[in-house]
Specification:
Layout: H1 2-15, H2 22-26, H3 32-38, E1 47-55, E2 61-68, H4 83-95, E3 105-108, H5 117-127, H6 130-152, E4 172-180, E5 183-191, E6 204-205, E7 208-211, E8 214-216, E9 220-221, H7 230-241, H8 256-267, E10 301-310, E11 313-322, E12 328-336, E13 342-343, H9 350-372
Parallel strand pairs: 7-13
Antiparallel strand pairs: 1-2, 1-12, 3-4, 4-5, 6-9, 7-8, 10-11, 11-12
Helix pairs in contact: 1-9, 3-9, 4-5, 4-6, 5-6, 5-8
Protein name: Beta-lactamase class A catalytic domain-containing protein
Organism: Aureitalea marina
Keywords: Signal
Length: about 375
């Protein structure tokens, strides 16, 4: 990868224009992974947000945002990226409960295995564990999650359902039983409001979908699904990485200990979180820069992020930090790869088109940062 970055740096320096938008600049790349999709960005529903980060003389952090085709009204399925706010708000919830802490053991009513909120957050960021996410969903519920996100003013958002489980949008939630200092505490449970269908552009996708093993020859309707636009993902990442740039009422009220734990889990690689490297290689949940390779990610690169992929849609929001060079920038992007237009058939071009594009997009912007610092 070192020689590829050197070549891109030379090419970028030779071709750069002083006033060209950084995203527009990197989208002029002749790399095959970029050319595969840039001829039809509408078909691939590409959206991108890039933030250049500068430190001013007084030590304050300055953001310069650039966007490409980013609109809250253009729906894409967020998949596991919704686990990001669930994890953050679960930490906030735990900090607000005097009887428990992040390490308190709990189990759900149909489950005999003991868990903790901190360990569920670890699993969410290390390997994007669905069950861990769903336990935290039971704890808070979609009403509380939605209301809290609205209070924070992060942007458009709607949590509607759990992930990869039967009856995922049911209103009734399971009870969680916490054990702390020999005492048992019952949390979670209750009923959430019914889901109101979304009214957005691109809410119906494709030409067909699979239901109960049979094809339905009409677009798939996502109006009752989760909704987490790219701008909202990017805004939440800013608040977590750079809280000093925001007012207190715009920030999740998590303790210093909880924030430290969150940041640790966000960048920790699966092998360092206790998972087998054979199945969970470094880039398992890191698409930008390294997603198209199973080689180890260099130790001096930290990627604080959350990815999601389902129904042919790949998304990622990230803060990328190279401690060796000092380069740091934020990047969020989404792409749809579903060549046959059929949803729910597990026939998507993630490895062929989607992940190579995301990885190369990250590399192109890393090289841009290197050339312009």
């Amino acid at each position: 990868m070192r020689f590829l970055l050197l070549f891109l740096l030379i090419l970028l320096t030779a071709c750069s224009g002083p006033d060209l938008d950084p995203i527009q600049h990197v989208l002029r790349s002749s790399h095959p992974a970029m050319l595969n999709v840039l001829h039809d960005v509408k078909k691939y529903e590409i959206q991108i947000i890039y933030t250049r980060i500068d430190t001013l003389e007084n030590g304050a952090i300055s953001f310069q945002d650039y966007t490409f085709r980013t609109r809250d009204s253009s729906y894409f399925y967020p998949a596991s990226t919704v686990k990001f706010p669930v994890a953050v708000l679960a930490l906030e919830y735990a900090d607000a409960q005097p009887e428990i802490n992040l390490k308190s053991s709990f189990r759900s009513s149909p489950d005999s295995i003991w868990h903790s909120i901190d360990d569920d957050v670890r699993q969410i960021f290390a390997v994007s564990d669905n069950a861990a996410n769903n336990r935290l969903y039971e704890l808070m519920g979609r009403d509380q999650i939605n209301n809290r996100m609205a209070d924070l003013g992060v942007g458009a958002f709607r949590m509607a359902h759990r992930l990869s489980t039967p009856d995922s949008d049911r209103a009734r939630r399971d009870t969680l039983w916490f054990e702390e200092n020999g005492d048992t505490l019952q949390l979670g449970g209750g009923m959430d409001q019914e889901i109101v269908p979304l009214q957005l552009d691109l809410i119906k996708k494709g030409k067909g979908f699979i239901r109960d093993g049979n094809i339905v020859n009409e677009p798939m309707d996502f109006s009752r699904k989760n909704y987490f636009p790219l701008a909202t993902q990017h805004a939440l990442m800013k608040r977590i990485i750079f809280p000093d740039n925001f007012k207190q009422e715009q920030l999740p009220q998590i303790s210093a200990e909880s924030r430290k734990s969150l940041l640790h889990h966000m960048h920790t690689l699966p092998k360092d979180a206790g998972y087998d490297q054979t199945d969970y290689y470094d880039s398992y949940g890191k698409f930008f820069l390294y997603g198209d390779s199973k080689e180890p990610i260099p130790d001096h690169i930290s990627i604080y992020n959350k990815v999601g992929y389902a129904y042919g849609t790949l998304s990622e929001t990230a803060f990328i930090h190279d401690r060796k060079t000092g380069i740091g920038f934020m990047l969020s992007a989404t792409i749809l790869v579903n060549e046959d237009g059929i949803f729910n058939n597990d026939n998507y071009e993630y490895d062929k088109i989607g992940i190579p594009f995301m990885a190369q997009l990250g590399r192109e912007l890393y090289v841009y940062e290197s050339a312009t610092r």
